[in-house]
Amino acid sequence: MVLHISRETLGKGKGVKEERMPGMTRGVSRKEFLKLGGAGLAGAALLGTVGCGGGQGGGEVVRYLTETPETTTLERAAIEIQVNRFQEQNPKYTLERESIAPDDLLTVIKTRLQSGQPPDVFNYGTGPGFAGVLEDAGLLRPLEKSYKENGWEIYDWAKQQVTYDGTVYGVPDLLQEIIVYYNKDLVPEAPKTVDELREIAKDLEGQGKIPFAFGDSEQWPAGHLFSMGASNLLGKEGLDDILNGDGRWDVPEVEKAIDLMFRDFVESGYYPEGVNAITYDDANSLFYAGKAGMLPTGTWLISSILETVQDFEVGFFPFPSIDGSDIAPAAGTGTGLFVAKDAKNPEGAITFIDYLLQDETARMLTEELLVIPAHPFDQEGLDVPGLFRGVLEEMSKATQAGALGYNIDVLTPQSFNEVMWTGFQEVLNGTRSPGEQAGALQDAWAKAKKQGKPAA
């Protein structure tokens, strides 16, 4: 599927800060995310902004903590939908929406939840390595009863990613797919196989261009590349067997995925020099500036691409077939909505979540914020840019066909993810072999299972 960016943009500025998602989340090193310590309440207050909307709500306050979108245009749209419209429909409540930078949310969240004034409801990363860490600390409120009382219809596979120890603790609100964007001026056609991809890369090198804008300074971006390769070579069933059955990571398919992404492509010169020292933002900038032909990352970057790229058309493709493998786009949930265990107004928090899941609200969020809800909703007549519409169609088609793979680090526990990220960097710099890394993944997996930390 070849899609072009509409020349219309969401805003007028350039050089905006991109959204970065470790698995689901934006803008921070995975190591920093996992610290879950914090700058404390004073720092968070300085870093955040509270959106009060245009009208006054009722007497009951609902405290909502969320990530700041990467542009002011999107922030204004979020306030209008999440605050103003909610209060109009629910005059009993006043929503205090605190929006802070993703980096800061990830470092202060545990401290905020343990304070005497926690948010009632908040956005956070799904999966056992993210919100699962908060559940382990006893900081989340179970939502089983709320699902039943409100009839929330979240996709089953997405709901599993907020289910810890058999109990549902969150509501996924964002689906994402790991894809490859490409510059239509430099790459005339999307490849269907890795052999075709190699021909494109060779041609780009001949033009003095970098084939892939990829940097792994933060370590988590390598997890996305691995998810693409492993999803294609193992497929959903093969990954399910590892994640939920007796399958193993130290198998030829996993070793091949590691070898392709982190040894072969490095030795072939497909990545920028010094790839382990290049940040996610800097890698994206190489693509934006036309210095790289392709950019492997997630659908969360669409709004930044629409805002920033003005000089060429952009298409996308799922990672192509590897030696005849089926194409299984890596996908997963991004953030989810969670209610604090010590929320002062849990009823208001549930009312707010229920509002966000309404069909009309979902349509507005999709059109205005370019997000993909994790529940069925009426998509008829959606007014969205061409690139985003292509992503919606791609995910819908792959979901219906049961052909989606997994964004692995959203599903796996913290201890496994640490071995994944540090190990991939070692393969990239040549100090660890693909086989050694596959073995290290299996060892970490076996240890996590023994400790009772399975996949979501």
Structure description:
The protein has 456 residues and is an alpha+beta fold. It has two domains: 30-175 and 334-388, 3-Layer(aba) Sandwich (D-Maltodextrin-Binding Protein, domain 2); 176-331 and 399-450, D-Maltodextrin-Binding Protein, domain 2 (3-Layer(aba) Sandwich), CATH 3.40.190. It has 17 helices and 13 strands. The protein has helices at residues 30-35, 40-47, 72-89, 102-113, 131-136, 144-150, 156-159, 194-206, 220-244, 252-267, 280-288, 302-308, 346-357, 359-369, 386-400, 414-428, 434-450, and strands spanning 49-51, 60-67, 93-100, 121-125, 163-164, 167-168, 170-172, 175-183, 210-212, 292-298, 314-317, 331-333, 335-339. Strands 1-3-2-4-13-7 form a six-stranded mixed β-sheet, sandwiched between helices. Strands 8, 9, 10, 11 and 12 form a five-stranded mixed β-sheet that branches. A two-stranded antiparallel ribbon has the order 5-6. Helix 3 (72-89) runs antiparallel to helix 14 (359-369), helix 9 (220-244) packs antiparallel against helix 10 and helix 16 runs antiparallel to helix 17. The protein is globular and about 65 Å long. The two termini are 31 Å apart. Mean pLDDT is 86; it is low at 1-49 and 51-55.
